[in-house]
Structures are given as structure tokens and as C-alpha cells.
Amino acid sequence: MTAVAWAGTQSVLLKRCARPLAKLYFEDFQPGHTAEYGPRVVTREEIIAFAAQYDPQPMHLDEAAGQKSLLGGLGASGWHSCGIMMRMICDGFILNSSSMGAGGVEEVNWLRPVRPGDSLTLRTTILDKRTSKSRPDMGIVRIRYEMMNAHGECVMTMVTPAMFGRRHPGAPS
Amino acid sequence: MTAVAWAGTQSVLLKRCARPLAKLYFEDFQPGHTAEYGPRVVTREEIIAFAAQYDPQPMHLDEAAGQKSLLGGLGASGWHSCGIMMRMICDGFILNSSSMGAGGVEEVNWLRPVRPGDSLTLRTTILDKRTSKSRPDMGIVRIRYEMMNAHGECVMTMVTPAMFGRRHPGAPS
Description:
Two copies of one chain form a homodimer. With 173 residues, chain A is α+β, with helices and mostly antiparallel strands.
């Protein structure tokens, strides 16, 4: 995995737009809105490298062990899938936003194995949003993420409440 | 991070016991039971390396940017904390068990920043368990995880339903 491989989504969008995308604030997220990012190809080498460091269960390290497991073959650690998704989220819109982070994740579902060579796309859906009572400069946007493989199968979903800065702190929401 | 650094918990336990720990099956998890694993020291280098690959938001890469953020200083990506926790879980008991993986995570809460030099310990609590109706060789154990720093502060919690093989498939539970 290289910086070049990761440059993907946003650089393509930037070229299309011929000028930088406007920075996203809390006000710009509209409930019901969806977007897609990617694709991003996963390699055998990175699946094994991640697993060796963070989740060295045999089915994430070895093809034969994977075949004997519920994964039915070598498959990425679910936490690696989360990392891949987070990178797609960063490159997709977070790095061009007023993101202030997230206090957690409401749910993660690993629905199908992520395999070497899989080409993944990310779909985002804005669920709802609210301003913060304690911090007038901040709002919380709940976002649903779905990661799909090239067969159109959903491999993973996640829902997270993300904190974003407001363009107009304290204004009526 | 090296294999030596990770050998930690279990090798100490093995020496104490003077024989390998018995492999853990579904039957061995008792609701209410707690255990502790670690410690595991987090380095600045791995915080930055993980963020550069999976979550390149400025507060995970740079001290000055971290100070301007809600983290109040350089802090690990929440997904890095998840990876560190997963490795502690693997070394703590999963690699010595009949683990069949997990279909997801019920919740993740990132409560406090994980800093360079933090020494983390992991506490597990068995919440409940049930046998699988569709797979008599499997049971699901819901486990709550809490990761603490050296100040005794909880930096992260997670609840996950984990699948384990049964020592006696199909036996009355």
C-alpha cells in the first residue's frame, strides 16, 4: 500500500471539478443524502501484514487455515476492514471537512469475508444530525457506512456518530 | 512493535503454570467472570505509522495539530486502539481457544485519548452466553472489554458477541 494507491477518490473528484471541493461543515450534511467512494483494492500482503501485527488468528494469516474456518479461505481481520473503511472515509470527505473526531461506534457488522484482490467501494448515508448543547461550535452527524465488494455484496456495515464543526456556531439549527 | 514485545501476558502465565494452559471452549466461559491482560506500552512511532496508513487525520499524526483538537495532544486513532485491544485479546486468550471469530461489534466507546508511552491493560467481563440453534458445534459468548491506562482511567470499552467451538457439540447447555 502506497500513498499513490491511496490518493484515489478525492484527486479524481478534484480533477473533475477543476477547483478544490468546498470544505464540509455540519451544515452541509443532509439527512437521507448518500454518496459513494472508492474503489480500493485489497492485497494479500496487507491482509497478512495487518493480521500479523494486530489480529494473528490463523484464518487471517494462512490460506489453508482460512479454508478450515468460517471464512472459507484467507480473509482480512474485521479490524483491518475497519481500517480500510476509515481510510476511504478520510480520503472521501473527512480530510476535507471540519471533522472533530468521533466518540465511538454504535455498531459494526462483518457480513462477508474481505479477500485478497477484492475491490471495495464505500457508500455513506446521512441518518440524522443534531447540534451540541454543551458545545455551540459543534454538531453530531450520524452516518451509516456500507462497504461493498465488486460482486455487489455488502461485506461490512457501520454506524457512527461523528462530530463536525459548525460554519455558524450557535446559530439556530 | 516486535513479536518479543507482544509475547507478554501468556508467556508469563505459561511460566507460572509450568505447563500449557488448557484450551478454552465455549463451556469454559462463565458469565460474570473477569480477567486482566497486559500491560502493553504504546509508542509514538506506532501511533503515527498506523494513522499514516489508515486514519491520517492531523491529530493522530502531529503533536501541534493534536493540541488544537479535542484530543488535547497527539492521540492514537480509535481504530488503532481497537487493533491494540484485539492483539491483547489474541495474546490473552483467543489464540489459546476454540474461537471461530465474530460477526461484528455491538458498541465501541473511545472515552479518553491513547497517548505515546501509555501502558494499557485490558479487563474482560463475560456478560452472557448461548448455544447456536443452527450450529450445534458453536456457541456465542458476549464479552465486555475495558482498556485502562496507567492512571487507572478507562480509555476504551467494547462489547462483542464472539463465536467459540463447543467441547461437546449438541450437548444440553
